[in-house]
Amino acid sequence: MPTPLDPMRDQSAQNAPALPGTELVQAPPPQIGEDRAAQLAHDLFGVTGAATSLGSNQDLNFVIDTGAPARLLLKIANPATDPAELEAQSRAAGLIGARAGVRVPLAHTFADGTTVRPVTAPDGAVAHARMLPFLDGSTLGGSGYLAPDVVARFGELAASVDAALAGWQHPGAERDSQWDLRHAPAVLAQLLPSVADDELRRHLQQTADAAWAQVAPVAASLPQQVIHGDLTDDNVVATDGRMPDGVIDLGDLGRTWRVGELAITLTGILHHDGVTVADAMTAVAAYQRIVPLTDAELDALWPLVAVRGAVLVASAHHVLRTDPGNEYAAENLQHEQLILKAATSLPLPVATALVRQSAGTEAPPLAAPPAQPMLAPAQPRGAGPAQPRVAGPVAVVDLSPESPALDEGRWMVPGIEQLLAADALATGVRAVTTRFAQPRLSRSHPGQSAPAVVVPGIDVTVAEPLVLTAPWPGEARLVDDGLELRAAHHGLVLRVSATQRGHVADRAGGEVATGDPFAEVTGTVRITLAAAGIAVPEAVTAQTAAAWRAVVADPTAVVFGDAVAPASPPPDGRELLERRDRSLAGVQEHYFSDPPVIVRGWREYLVDADARVYLDALNNVTSIGHAHPRLVEAVASQWRRINTNSRFHYPQIVEFAERLAATLPDDLDQVFLVNSGSEAVDLALRLAQAHTARRDILAVAEAYHGWTYLSDAVSTSVADNPHALETRPEWVHTVEAPNPFRGRYRGAHASRYADDAVAEVRRLAAAGTPVGAFLAESIFGNAGGMPLPDGYLKAVYAAVREAGGVAVADEVQVGYGRLGEWFWGFEQQGVRPDIVAVAKAMGNGHPLGAVITSRRIAASYRSQGYFFSSAGGSPVSSVVGLTVLDVIRDEGLQQNAATVGAYLKQRLAEVAHRHPILGTVHGYGFYLGPEFVRDRETWEPATVETARICDRLRRLGVMIQPTGDHQNVLKFKPPMCFSRDSADEFIAALERVLDTGW
C-alpha cells in the first residue's frame, strides 16, 4: 500500500515498497564553518591543519591540509544520519578495498574499534564526524568527455563493488534513504512541491509514473544486497585524471536493489559531453561481464535510470528551496537536468532493448503478423470493395550509403529522396517504396554527432491516388498528420502519415474489417507499424536502430505482400573485422581499434556503412578528392578500350611523361613510371648507385621512405620500425633529424644542422666510403610536415655533389601542389635535385608512382640491365595521371591549398594560444602538422594524449591520425579540394576536444 505521503495512487505506486518512516528527505547539513572544522579535526582526531570546505547536498566535507603531502578529509554527516550507518560505511570501505582491487579511503579507527565521534553544531544539532585519507588524483565530476574505455571502467567499478559487498550484512546498512530507488515514489511525493515550475513538475511526475509502471511488475524479483549507492563521476577518483581507480564517499551505502547500483552509475555519466544513451551501454556491457544481470534487472535498469533522473532534479529544487545559498546544488542542477533529458530521450522499451542488446540478451525484433496486402487502385466513392493489389509493379529506391543512385554527391542534393522517387515513377511503375530501417545517406551530413538517418518506416510514393485496405480488423481514426489503424488483436498501430508531397484521406472513420478501404493516399506518405503507445520519430540514429526494432515492425509485407523482396543486410563491422584479421597478415594494420566500415568517399568526405559522414583530414593519397567524376569517367572510358602492359606503344604514356616532366626543371626530363612510393624511392636509389658506382647512401634520421629493400634500408623512423636504427645495413649512414624544436639545435641555432650534415658528408668521403646519394624528404613529412631549416638542402646538396654523389628528393608525400605556394617541396628550399621520387597524389588512390631524372643519370641504369614495370604507366594509369594533373590545374587545387591551408594554420595558431598542449603547427598548405606537447619548454611529446585526441576527433566526425617518431603530431594531409567550411569544421571539432577532453 502507498505511504500516507505518497500521492501516486496508480498501480505502480501501490506496488512500491512501503516505508517505515514518513520523512525521507533529510534536513540541510549542519552549519559548521571551516575554522570550526579545523578545530574539530584537532580536538577529535589530533590532526592540525587548515580546513577547506567541499560541496555537498546534505553532509559536510572538509579537506584538512596538515602541510604533509598526503591530505585528510573530515566528513561530518547530516544530523539525521545514524552513527551505525557511518560505522557500516567504514566497514564496507575495508571490504571494497580488499576484494574489489580499487583504492578506497579507510576511516581513522579508534582504540575501541569505532570510527565515529559526535559533533554539536551551533544550533544544538548533533552530527557525527569521521577522518579519512584524501585519495590522490581527481574525480571525474563536471561535464568533460568520457572516452568509451572510461565509460566501461565505470561499469566495471560498479560491478566490482557489488561483487565485493555481495552477501555482506551490517545493521547500519539496513536503512531508509532518499536515494534508495525502492522508495522513489515516496521521495518524489515529498520533493515535488519544491518544484515551482508547473510544466517541469508534471514532467517529473509523468517520468516517474511511466518508469515505475515498468519496475513494479518485476520489483519482487530484483536481487537485493548492500550497494555503494552513489558510485557516480563525483565519487570515483582517477590517479591519472582519466581512468577511475579509486572509490570514495559511501554516504549512501545501504541494502537495496542490486541493479540500483548500475542505474545510479549510469546517471553519473549521462551528462558528460558526447555521452549518449547508446554510449552509456558500454558500462552496461562491462558490468554484465563481471556481475550478470537477471532478466528482471535488465527490464528494470533503464526505468530506474529515468526515475533516478527525476529524483535528482526534484531533490536539487528542494535543496535550493531549503538552502538557497547551496552553490554545489545549484551547479549540479545543470548536470541533473541533462541527466533527466538523456534518461528520457528514448521510450523506455527502446532503452531497455538497448540494455538487453549490450548485455547480449536481446529479444527478437517486433514482427508484423500475417496480413492481406494494403494497396489497391482508388475506387469511386460508394463503389464496391477494392481488390487488394498494387496497380502495376513496385520500384524500390535505394538510399543506402552504397547506392549507385547517390553517386557523385547526389546524396547532398536537397530533396534527393523525392527526386529519386519521381525518377522511378517515370519508368512506368505505379508505386515506389523505400527500404525499412535502411540507413539513408540522403539524410546524412558532416557533423560532430551521428545524425538520425534510419527511418523506422517506409515512404511510399504512388503515381495516382490509391486506396489502402485494412490488413486486419481494427479501428481507423484521424490523427494530426494522417490516419491510424489500431489492430484489434495484435496490439499494433499502423500509421499512415502525410508528407509535404503527399496526402492521406479518410475512407472509413471507425471500425474496419480485413480488406475494407480505410484510407486513400496520393503523392508520398510515410507508413509505420509500431507497438501501441509508441511515438515513432521521423528518424533515429544507426546506433539505436536495432533497439527501435523491439517496438517498430517492418510494414513492407503488410503494404505490398511479396511484391518487394527483402534487402540484403548491410556489412557487419565487427564480423568484417574478424574476417579481416583471419585473412590478412596481422602486420597489415588498419586505422583505429574499432574502425568504421568505410563504403563511400566524396570530395573531402568519407562515408561509413551506417551513413555517418566523416571529414577526411589525412588522406594524402586522394589529392583531387574522392570519387572525382572526371577521373571516374576517364578511367572507365580508357578501360573500355584497353589497359595493358606498359611496354606496348600507345599515346597516353607519352603524353603523361611529357606533362609530368614539364612540371620540373628543364634537365629533369626522363620519367620512369612505377606503382607506388616505395618502388619510386627504391628505383631512385638504384639509379643513384648505378650512376655513381657507389653503394653508400646518406639519409636523414627519423624519416620513412618505404617497404621495399632499398627504401626500407634507408628508413630510420622508429615509429614505423622500432628496430630501424640498429638494423640498418653498414652502407646506410644517417644525419640527425633537423628538428628545431626538440633536436640538438633549436630556434635560431637550427642552421647548424646543415653544418653537421656537410661535415658528415666530408667525413664519409675521407673515410673511404663517399656517399653515392643523399636522400631526404623536401619537407620533413614523417615529423608532421616540418620545414627543413632555411638553406639546409642547398648546403647538403652542394657538399654531396662536391663529393661526387647525387641528390635525391623524396616527394612521395609532399609533391604535387600540396604545399600551396610550391608545386614541389624542393622548391621551398630553392634547390634542384638530381633525382625526384613521387607517388601518392599522382594517382588519387590509383597505384601510380614515378622517378624523374636527367638523361645522363637515366642512361646509367643500363649498367643494371633494363627496366620495366608492367602496370606502371599502363594506359589506365597514364590516363589517371593526366586527369589528376588536369584537375589540379583546372580546379585551382594548388591555389586552394595555399589559401585554405594558410587560413587553417592561422586558426590553429589561435587554438594553440588558448591551449598550451598544442605546441606549434608545422608545414604549409595542406601539409600541416599540429604538434602536441606536455611542456613547451622541454617539448615533452604528448604521445598518449595525441592518440586519444585522434580517437575523439574520429567520434566527432573527423578522420585524422598521429605521425612522427613520437606519434604526437596530427597528420593533416587532406584531399586538396578541402574547403574553408571544412577547415572551420575541423577547428570546431578540435576545439571541442581540447575544451571538453579526450
Commentary on this structure:
The chain has 998 residues and is of the alpha+beta class. The protein has 4 domains: 349 residues, Aminoglycoside phosphotransferase (APH), C-terminal lobe (Aminoglycoside 3'-phosphotransferase, Chain: A, domain 2, Alpha-Beta Complex), CATH 3.90.1200.10; 186 residues, no CATH class; 135 residues, Aspartate Aminotransferase, domain 1; 244 residues, Aspartate Aminotransferase, domain 2 (3-Layer(aba) Sandwich). It has 27 helices and 41 strands. Strand 12, helix 12 and strand 13 form a beta-alpha-beta unit. Helix 25 packs parallel to helix 27. The longest helix is centred in the first third of the chain and has 28 residues. The N terminus is likely disordered.
The helix fraction, in percent, is: 25-40%
Q: What ranges have pLDDT less than 50 throughout 5 or more consecutive residues? A: 1-22, 383-391
- The coarse overall form would be flat
CATH fold naming of the largest domain: Aminoglycoside 3'-phosphotransferase, Chain: A, domain 2
Percentage beta strand: 15-25%
Give the overall pLDDT as a whole number.
92
> How many domains would you count in the coordinates?
4
**How many angstroms separate the termini?**
49 Å
